[in-house]
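Tutorial, part two.
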Amino acid sequence: MKRVVVTGMAAISTLGETQEQIMQSLRACKNTTRHMEGWSEYQGLRAHLYAPLIGYERPKDFSRKQLRTMSTISVLAVDCTRRSLEDAGLLGDAVISSRRTGVAYGSCVGSMSAFAPCVKLLNEKNAREITSGTYVKLMGHTAPVNISLFFATKGRTINSSTACTSGSVAIGSAYEAIAMGRQDVMLAGGAECCNMLPLAVFDALFAASTRNDSPETTPAPFDKNRDGLVLGEGACTLVLEELEHAQARGARIYAEVVGFGYTSDGTHITSPNAETMKGAMVEALQMAGLRPEDIGYLNLHGTGTKNGDMAEAAATSSVFGNRLPVSGLKGYTGHTLGACGALESMVSIMMMREGWYHPNLNLHELDPECEGLDYITGEGRCLDAEYVMNNNYAFGGINTSLIFRRWPN
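Running the prediction step on this input gives:
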């Protein structure tokens, strides 16, 4: 098995668009939930909250030809990937357009605007707004395909549209492709743009927060008084590279990917299963050759839904007991769906390198059903962790666990 390291990282997030901005926002305990003006006009929609990107502008050098196949999700994915390649020192490198570089990327659903011509075709029997780029903008693998087209990659193109684990499955799949010697470099991550469809679904399930008059108080994962999740948008790309390849070019290394666990519930499409969640963590530990006590910090999925939080707390405590410091990012960014697995992995790596870990935002009174873990609160915590774990779970009963090792500076 080849060793796999992270040599580039970039995010377009509600917390900022650089690593420095994101860390500053975390230290400031910045909640980015907003009341969305105009959403109250949608009949039957009770939740009017979202964590939107504010001030983001599409790159001006994206050509008309390139944009013909790009939805908003693809724009975010390509822009973020270019930034990560620049961070890795690989932008324009010949290896990117060789068969030794691939793409693994995901999102939950396509951009709503891309579906509009299709709805018109079905409802009004009018095909005039259907263009040659319509399907390419809304197809499930629009993000990885557009990344591949933009950077002319010739290796594997892996689509990981697995709901809220899309980003983590992408990183895990990229890790396996390199570890098995099939690729030297993989561009891995996820993206999600503002989309009312998943919000309406969560609202129908009574799983979305309706604190429309106090957006700064929600989401509140693991809190006794939480009332559901808040969705958000963003993108994150990690550049994964075979260790010897990275060292040969003198690359800066952020971390090493050492474990990936991936299980399915096989029981219910929306109800979480603590036992198979546990299985993903155990599998990741076994792959890494580690014991539970070797992990110094765990990034929780932490959606802010009652059933999800309870199952995750039970699964995590069954593996680690109450000794492991834990916190989750969604209190800051909302649930970024297809992007969260990548964004939360990046933030975990950043904190591991800095030695400071953000607290659980809006956790004021712990739900008794979620006891048994060492939740970080207050101003965060300084820790010396050699290994960190990031866990994500999704509709369809999909469970993922990633383990990263701190690279000596």
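The longest strand covers residues 255-264. In part three we will examine how such features are distributed along the chain.
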